[in-house]
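Bug #77: duplicate submission created two jobs. Keeping one. Sequence:
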Amino acid sequence: MSTIDPYEASSEQKAIDIAQDHCRKIVSALKELSLLYDDWVGGDYKGAEDRLNRVSRIEGEANKLKHELLEQLSKATTMVNREDLMRLALVVDEIADVAEGTGFRILAIQEWKPDANFKKEMQALVEKLISATEKLRLSIFMLSQNPTKALEFADEVDAIEKGADMIQRRVGHSLYASKLEPKNLIMLKELIAHFEEMADTAERAADAIRIVAMARSK
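Kept job's structure:
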């Protein structure tokens, strides 16, 4: 019967703890992005700029935690899942990067006012992204507690991502059906593409979690 190296176990738990903190930052960035969107819809561009500054600050804090996590993992040379956890950290961090870029694109659109349907659909999309990232955090937490439960949360991320895809398609079709100026249509398409990228990245993070969880459940 094999024994678990106490040092390896403690190093892995510390890495998972940092990964959780990292994911909390991503959730915070998306919540600020949601408030940024609300300010933009309401025409409060100054408030939206302040929110974007907060998103950028949180993204910087998340980046520091990513580096801390990678440093912790680099020291744990005997850790079985080290490279998989590194991959997970890098994928999750992409969500914060794209969230910041999304905020800039929202602020760039100031000559067009969204209708009620667009407002509703986009807010639902932001909420889906927040929910998916919160599920990622729970899945990461369960990696050291219950790998089977971690897999269940990863499946929930996939289900949320599919719901986000449906919203993106509806919004995309409505934009093409509307009579928008080419410049605004291009900017809105880019905005939708950024939301789609965040959802797809959450799904990739769920896949990365599955790799770690399945290895731990053996």
